[in-house]
């Protein structure tokens, strides 16, 4: 098997293109964000050419995603065609003699290691053999890229830019100054003091899964206990030490700069901190490039005839379910539950049973994404889903056309794990979100939108499971709380089935009810957020300026 798949002819319509290579990494959510950014960069600069490097499996998934983004973002057909000529996907494979290290075999670490080994071979190849494009002027790498700085720099000494497809607050939690009292301190200390790779990975895994009650204060997000970044106490994920070692060493030791897909319009304090620490102290420039929202009418795009015709039969059934719910139950009647592609209540699967039972009892229609729930699927859950479908209350599929669902008039609220991709898509649709977070960036995103006097969403706490009785969330440190809008008392969470059902009834059935005042207010706040998002991408806005600052030093020109 070759190391690099044959690449398509790139017909770059400029005399002196500036070539950037983007390593998409081993996780689809990250790669998807990278494709979106790449399209925006190519639209912004007419002499930029991008080679986007991924596994063959991801390239297959990414091609339609690329076309959808281009359809949404390009101002006209001529610009879209021009971008197609300057962008290429490159499929890479590990060398034929590659063998995964035993400790990473059959874990997420294997995919990361394979991607890194394949990329290094590709990097050497494009500098040793004749290419249609000039040598790269910049390399952008996913946060979980496994590489050695010296190995790449010895081939070509170009800027290495760390790509962080998540929030500024989460970035600061991992890679901010030690004074934040977050994970950045343990990550830096272990990198500086431990040379043995396995020992380093063990130390970073231990730090990541710590149940520390140290209070972390980052400004935009309300204070949290450190342990709340794994709020469901899922423990150390498979090879989390390897992943954290890859990311923290890339951030602190290997990269020259960082792209962060958020902005000061939503996280001003985190942006100030990162500028102060990274740009000033570490001398690594950071670029807040948030490009997920189009100023175009997204509902018309997402639900256009062309887009709907391209859906698979199961996806079309989801749209039909929404159309029927709109006719039967009215606007805002449907809830949409998605845990993303990597998370689900794996240790507490009974929580999904209670979710379905509650909605069926109160006859609230819902859509249930099964993208990540196969590990918790059981005869009881299958029977519940079937019962709900037979009652006309459930639409479900393994893959949901999320953008179309979020823009449909039948949808009332988005019950989400709160990953950054879903978070941004919720803002793009101005859809109120009900957060069911598990770990990593999700608790930060949930807290950002669900706390304060004017929340734009809700956060579920009983979903943290029985461990929440001992690891009480910071917001309940003084006991029960009052809901700022209704005045209802919110008890200190215990994680029991009875408490979870009560929380579902309060949030899903009463507060987020179709036509409720609370749903209306949250939707209005989401619309304000969406407009701020759009403004950041306009000429002179934060995102627009960040793209100029990123590309201008390497010789890119910009469309007027």
UniProtKB/TrEMBL annotation:
Instruction: Specify the domain of life of the species encoding this protein.
Output: Eukaryota
> What is one Pfam family matched by this protein?
UDPGT
- SUPFAM superfamilies xref list: UDP-Glycosyltransferase/glycogen phosphorylase
Q: Which PROSITE patterns match?
A: UDPGT
GO molecular function term, any single one? UDP-glucosyltransferase activity
This chain's source organism reads Tilletia laevis
Q: Which family does it belong to?
A: Belongs to the UDP-glycosyltransferase family.
Q: Which InterPro entries match?
A: UDP-glycosyltransf_plant, UDP_glucos_trans, UDP_glycos_trans_CS
Q: Does the keyword Glycosyltransferase apply?
A: yes
Work out whether the entry's keyword set contains Transferase. Answer: yes
The record's keywords, sorted A to Z, are: Glycosyltransferase, Transferase
Please state what the protein is called: Glycosyltransferase family 1 protein
CDD domains xrefs: GT1_Gtf-like
